[in-house]
Amino acid sequence: MFYFRPMPTRHFNFADLFELAVDKVPDRLALVDARRELTYRELDERATRLAHTLADLGVKAGDHVAILATNCIEWVEALFAIYKMRATAVNVNFRYVEEELRYLFANSDVVACVYQREYGPLVAAARDAQPRLQHFVRVEWNDSQADDSALDPIEFEAAVAAGSPERDFAERSDDDLYLLYTGGTTGMPKGVMWRHEDVYFALGGGIDVFTNERVADPSTASEKIDASQPKGLVSIILPPLMHGAGQFGVYRTLFEGNTAVMPARFEPEEVWHTVEKYGVNVMQVTGDAMARPLADTLERLKDELDVSSLLSFGSTAAIFSQTVKDQLQALLPDYLVMTDSIGSTETGMNGIRFVQKGDAPKDGITSVQASADSVVLDENFEPVEPGSGAVGQLARGGNIPLGYYNDPVKTAETFVTDARGARWSIPGDFARVEADGRITLLGRGSASINSGGEKIYPEEVEGALKSHPDVYDVLVVGVSDQRWGERVCALLQPRAGRDPNLEELREHCRTRIAGYKIPRQLLLVEQVPRLPNGKPDYRSAKEQAKGRAGEAAREV
Fold first, then answer.
1. Strands 454-456 and 449-451: what pairing?
2. pLDDT tens track, the chain, 556 positions
3. Are 101 and 61 in contact (CB under 8 A)?
């Protein structure tokens, strides 16, 4: 006898959005990593099985599950397994030392951890920071023989094999929790809490970044997938999945029925060979930390490679210098669309611009067309008048986070409600609104330098320095100064074989930024400190600058 099983109600929930794409193109290639490939059907079944095994271990809806790994298919399988059962994934930075991991475990209330074997001893050392952490799933990787026996883990493949393939989960909700830990550029990591629906509209493709058109209902995105074609667009995911840029590169690719290719780590030469091998169409980077070595490597290999498949190259979340944009545009196909966008974990997308050769803003980091619900507010939470030159803080209303997990103080500082009852996310980025409505980003207030009463945004100075041909990478910090309170210090990584001097760089900067912003101290470094996602590590940069405070040879 045939029993009719009604279709479940679908929501703006990541598991639902993924399953809608699976049902539309089950046999299309979904994921590729360094070892294997999976179709949508295979990825869905493995994630479903893993979800059932996690439930059998004792993980419940609403529980938090940590993932500690480099980019691999298991990362994505674990993500969707967790969402399928209405639990919450917790991203873990694979560069953490024991104390940082202990902090994250304690703060996030995790009950289970999926980890690559090489990190097993670290997990074992930190596990007692969270008494609720009882369940461990091990991913075999790189032939590691690390001793993780203290965790008594279940093997990932055994966990997949043991679970049921049936999609018999409880109905999900728009309100299910999405949690993304962000270290930002300073301080300990903070867990930004989103509803699935809100983060889908803020970062997951729910609002078209160019037209601001909203997806009408959960099935709309999958309805746009052309199932008559054997393949969709191919995206290469370069940022680590432990950061938002990497995760949302995967989410948007899969929700749209396309293919995501994931190198385990960022190696520029491997990236370009992967572009050629898989016919990659879309590449997203996080600023110069990825774009510059990619440009230099392509310059060297351009006669050996075919990168004509690339249609789109975009950057987000970090400075994308005009010199690097120009270099890439000269190397990549003329028909390629290049974009520069701004946003944060706390706001989602704030704006985007199409890159044209030589069109860098006269000041600021970049100027973008504002995205939906993004504004610049003054200290009274009133929108800054376009063209006034007034500086305010970049904010977003509408679909914004609930707050920071286990941190009501920082939640109150960042997520504020104005006198009219409107709620805003204001993470601390300063900006200006141009006469035509474009937003010019100036920089993060927490990293700003106060020199003689003038506020200087490091990113703006960095942009000016990076336009010099001898400069490979640079971070700018404030160091103590008896006269001015703080002075501008540049930690600069020169290009190979170059030896830039401070006076030359200062003269170069005079045509690009005001005199009070120009560096007064130059410290040459072998490598500029950056976080794994390419964002600046201002905390480490400041420590280096303090440690070399006595150097005066390159100071004026």
1. antiparallel
2. 344 445 678 999 999 999 999 999 999 999 999 999 999 999 999 999 999 999 999 999 999 999 999 999 999 999 999 999 999 999 999 988 898 899 999 999 999 999 999 999 999 999 999 999 999 999 998 899 999 999 999 999 999 999 999 999 999 999 999 999 986 444 578 999 999 999 999 999 999 988 889 999 998 888 889 999 989 999 999 999 999 999 999 999 999 999 999 998 899 999 999 999 999 999 999 888 899 999 999 999 999 999 999 999 999 877 788 889 999 999 999 999 999 999 999 999 999 999 987 666 555 678 999 998 999 999 999 999 999 999 999 999 999 999 999 999 999 999 999 999 999 999 988 899 999 999 998 887 767 787 876 778 888 889 889 989 999 999 999 988 877 788 899 999 999 999 998 899 999 998 888 888 899 999 999 999 987 767 788 888 988 988 886 664 344 4
3. no
Q: CA-CA distance, 231 to 233, in Å (whole number)?
A: 7
Given a contact cutoff of 8 angstroms between Cβ atoms, the answer to whether 537 and 552 are in contact is no
Assign 90 to helix, strand or coil: strand
How far is residue 26's CA from residue 498's CA, in Å, rounded to a whole number? 53
Sign for the CA dihedral angle at 529, 534, 538, 540 comes to negative
Scanning 333-457, the segments in alpha helix (DSSP H) are 408-414
Q: Looking at this protein, which amino acid is placed at residue 233?
A: L
Task: Say yes or no: domain 34-196 is CATH 3.40.50.980.
Answer: yes
Measured CA distances, 464 to 184, 238, 247, 490, 543 (Å): 23, 26, 31, 11, 23
Domain range annotation of the chain: 34-196, 448-547
Please give the Cα distance from 375 to 400 (Å, whole number): 13
Residue with tokens 């600023």: 287
CATH architecture label of 448-547: 2-Layer Sandwich (3.30)
In the 8-state DSSP scheme, what is residue 442? E
User: Residue 402 and residue 518: Cα distance in Å, rounded?
Assistant: 39
Q: Could you please report the per-residue DSSP string of 242-291?
A: TSHHHHHHHHHHHHTT-EEE--SS--HHHHHHHHHHHT--EEEE-SHHHH
Tell me if 112 sits within 8 A of 40, measured CB to CB. no
Closest CA to 32 of 284, 275, 305: 275
- Distance, in Å, from the CA atom of 66 to the CA atom of 79, rounded to the nearest integer, reads 10
Q: Tokens in use for 429?
A: 């980025």
Q: How far does the chain reach from its first CA to its final CA, in angstroms?
A: 88
Query: Residue 477 and residue 488: Cα distance in Å, rounded?
Result: 6
**496 contacts 521 by C-beta, under 8 angstroms:** no
Q: Give CA angle at 467 (466, 469), nearest 5°.
A: 95
Strand partners, 194: 178
